[in-house]
Specification:
2 helices, about 10% helix, mainly beta, 13 strands, six-stranded antiparallel β-sheet, five-stranded antiparallel β-sheet
Length: about 180
Amino acid sequence: MEYIPTDIEGVWILEPRVFADARGYFMETYRKSDFDAHIGRPVDFVQDNQSQSVRGVLRGLHYQRGELSQAKLVRVLSGRVVDVAVDLRRSSPTLGRHVMVELSADNQRQLFIPRGFAHGFQVLSDEAVFAYKVDNRYAPEAEASIRFDDPDLAIRWPIADRSEVILSEKDLTRAVAFREADLFD
């Protein structure tokens, strides 16, 4: 596995070594000891999640507040997405900046997003299956979201035409502006 640092401290792109032949391929997607050594601290994942979405679906920008915040290791099992992590750490020099990475079944990349970030992705293929590990349980009482189109964040989503973007009712009605978001200390 190759660990590639991004422009935002703590966010990593992971590229697995893929061994392919006429039968198909094999790759290791996670090994705790290597992961912790490269990330620089232990991360104890406690839950795996998976979603399926169609082209244009935008899930995010989601996070959990306080002690129930989550670090995530995300990847795409089929299809193609653009994945975004937004820094919400109050004392960070990159507060409000984001990392955007294409994740696909073809490139096999993963993205590690530490606690203190909002996260979202937009589906670029006809369909995508998205999988992620989290280091804290899902807690609806702590969930929050920031508007995907917040002008202060200036995220350039590949599918920008609002008529093609599919949002959940929750993201349409409950997402707040970045300036109103709960930040992390």
